[in-house]
Amino acid sequence: MRLDQQIDSMKEDLIAAIQACIQIKSVKDDEHAAPGAPFGPGIKEALEWTLGLGEQFGFTVKNVEGYAGHIEMGTGDLLGILGHIDVVPEGDGWSVPPYSGAIKDGKIYGRGALDDKGPSLTALFAMKAIKDANIPLNMRVRLILGTDEESGWADMDYYLKKEEVPKIGFAPDAEFPVIHAEKGILHLELSKSLAKSFPHLVRVQGGERANVVPDVCEVSVKGIAGEIITNTLKDFSFPEGVSAELGSVEIENEMKLIFRGVGAHGSLPQNGKNAVLYALQFLQTLPLSSEELHMLDFILTHPGNGFYGEGFGIALSDEPSGKLSLNLGVLELTADNVRFVIDIRYPVTFKRDDIFLPIEKIAQSENFSLKIISHQDAHHVPKDSDLVQSLLKAYADVTGLEPFAFAIGGGTYAKALPQGVAFGPVFPGEPDGIHCPDEYISIENLLITTKVYAQAILNLAADPENR
């Protein structure tokens, strides 16, 4: 581990750099977008600051019209490291200011500490350690800095049309050891206008995003005696973590109920308790019309049946990536219309139409319109590839931990490369605070991660005697 001492000597500079970058609020701001700042002034500032740091280190840098940028060293074929400097909004519940970069108990806190400013900067400092140690490389190493990863990837779409695309590389934006397979992601909307208004269901509203298990569902019904609803609610059995209560309404003859479940990421619906589904199950016990009951049954039978696509007959699985997952993320039902959105993560050996066509057939049978909201193809790099094996060796040699490759339902910038994988920074068994209040990265892990990335670069881009 010839770079260990070099990296340890950079500790204070690395901490200071991450703190400074966190202090730039780089949240997407379409309202103030401008030429050179397509995603707003905060993201522009963070991109320019990071590129400036790379320039200070003596690297070649380029700003691609504010959509992205890169920091590069070496000559030869291109090895890509794909990070991003945009962050999700801070949200509530922080114990420290979210853009302070505060240090507490050996951890740097702040939005972006773990996703993805901290890891991107560790990759930059890994490059600097190699440069300062005068270790020759056979490849160009390019740290690509995205600016719209959290919202829609417009940055990477633009960048890859303008710049050379690395054939191989990794994204420091997920988990260790190596994520070699990322499932396809398909978001579908099913909608329908009703020929005849529902007599009792005024509104059923749950969920805001396809990729989140809804933790709240609000229901308004009319024309059913309050006593019936109250008694049915009292007798209804909910599982632990799920509850329902009567809400206040100002409209006569209408009652409101609020159902609460447990949220989770849409790629892991089995980890949550979908408030929408429990609301529909309760509504089935009320004296509704046959048309209303038929609609509830359709939703519960198809998107609401199981976690793995059983209801649509698409419970697919493969060896590289495991089971398909399906999440009912949004339901908007009124007396005259119904709309729901589902999030599907499908195994890497299948194609979009293996999923879409069976759902289309069922949708057409009930006169639903079916729309593709978004789609990302599945991505898979074999475990025995040189890329995966080189990264696993770097991880094992630096950490002493067991190396293994695995699949996820999420999507990272690794999908942008012909051969790309996700590689760190969260270690096995450690909490993943990405997008959460009090997001942090531990200083100990920061240094270990920098050493892993430096060794990974050497394994991929240096002669054996220089590794």
Structural overview:
- The chain has 467 residues and is α+β, with helices and mostly antiparallel strands.
- Helix content is 29%, strand content 27%.
- The chain has 11 helices and 24 strands.
- The strands form 6 sheets. The protein has an 8-stranded antiparallel beta sheet with strand order 13-14-12-11-17-18-10-19, covered by helices on one side. Strands 1-2-6-3-7-22 form a 6-stranded mixed beta sheet, with helices on both faces.
- Strand 4 and strand 5 form a beta hairpin.
- Helix 2 runs antiparallel to helix 4.
- It is elongated.
- The N and C termini lie close together (8 Å).
- The relative contact order is 0.18.
- The mean pLDDT is 94.
C-alpha geometry: elongated
Oligomer: single chain
What's the number of helices? 11
Strand tally is 24
Order of strands, widest sheet: 13-14-12-11-17-18-10-19
Extract low-pLDDT stretches.
none
How large, in whole angstroms, is the Cα Rg? 25 Å
Give a short account of the largest sheet: 8 strands, antiparallel
**How large a portion of the residues is in β-strands, by DSSP E?**
25-35%
Mean pLDDT: 94
Distance between the termini: 8 Å
Protein structure class: alpha+beta
Short structural description:
With 467 residues, this protein is of the alpha+beta class. The protein has 11 helices and 24 strands.
